[in-house]
Amino acid sequence: MKVWRWIFYLVLLIFPFGQLASFYSPFKEFFFRVHLLDIAGLCFVLYWLVFVKKFNSPFFFRPLAVFGVIASISLAVKALFLPFGELVLPFFYLLRLYCWILFFWAMTDFIKKEKIDLINLLVLEGLAVSAISLLQYLFLPDTRFLFYADWDDHFFRAIGAFLDPSFNGLILVLAFILCLKKYFGIRQGNKNFYLFFLLLIGITVGLSFSRMSYLILIISFFIILMFKKKYKLLFPFLFFFALIIFLIPKQTGEGVDLLRKSTSFAKIANYRQVLLISKDNLLLGVGYNLLRNEFFKRGFLAKENWQTSHAGAGADNSFLFVLATTGIFGLLSYLYFWLEIIKRTLKEKEIFFLSAIVSLLVSAFFVNCLFYPWILFWWGTILADFTAEIEA
């Protein structure tokens, strides 16, 4: 069991380094990016499968497994009509999906067997992400050179090791929620530590200039205060956060303009493209993660970088991504999984977990966050913690 615990610590160690802890496959025929987090997560699952005595499948596993089966069927059907070379990358995406689905079960067992302060560990992860983001903002604020590596170019924005302000901001907000949980759950003497952590994470979110991150931070804080009946804290929080946004230095450029329109227009164009693909493949979609291939065939991706573009593999909306790749059957099964979680969360009155769910679901309408490896790890971990608690 010590080995299993150390593998989990390895996953935690890799997590805050984001996209920096990844590399491209050495095979030119099968070009894809390999994340060390996926490899560490797979090791965690494989050790569990081989060496650990398992409990029964956790409460939310079956609806999630049903979605995994539908994703497999959607890819298998399309595999009959595609050459082998076009199936390699989607197969690895499907393998990753299964890995993180099993990670949820394995993590639930891990929490039941191991006595660890999981919330504090995730708060530390959030602080590490915040520290890396602040260092990047202070010493490498101009990251426009990343455009030549097929990333979006950003200027004076906290993108951290994830190289994207939206994903970076989402992870920080999820850490902020857990930090609030610790703050409200401990005695007065230790509150100052968590208050400092909240301030640090809040400033880093402000430096992301991500409107999505601002929105989910406010919504999640509002939910917690309403359930806690601490209404008087809402206005000071909004005032202080607005003050942070107003006071932080802003360079010229559209990236730091909160009223920018180009990204909104780009997302709307992406939604239209994905809906067009979905309309033509309504029942089972184009096949689980064959969206990049479909974009290229329809002329939505440039020929010179269609395999390397980091925006080419998905939709800017997780639910549209599910609809386009697994069809209406996949979308219904996926929505049922989330509905079951929400119903049980409301029944248990787990307000911090509920605020995390709302943050994820709101974000999913702006970025494909629900299939992002680092979010899959974070979500699988807190869902496992919630599941282990209600099954205790």
TrEMBL record:
Instruction: Indicate how the chain sits in the lipid bilayer.
Output: Multi-pass membrane protein
Compartment annotation: Membrane
Keywords for this protein:
Membrane, Transmembrane, Transmembrane helix
Residues in coiled coil: none
Membrane-crossing ranges are 7-24, 30-52, 59-81, 87-106, 118-139, 159-180, 192-225, 231-248, 319-339, 351-375
**What cellular component GO annotations does this protein have?**
membrane
Which ranges carry the O-antigen ligase-related domain? Answer: 197-335
State the name under which the record lists this protein.
O-antigen ligase-related domain-containing protein
The root-end lineage is: Bacteria, Candidatus Shapironibacteriota
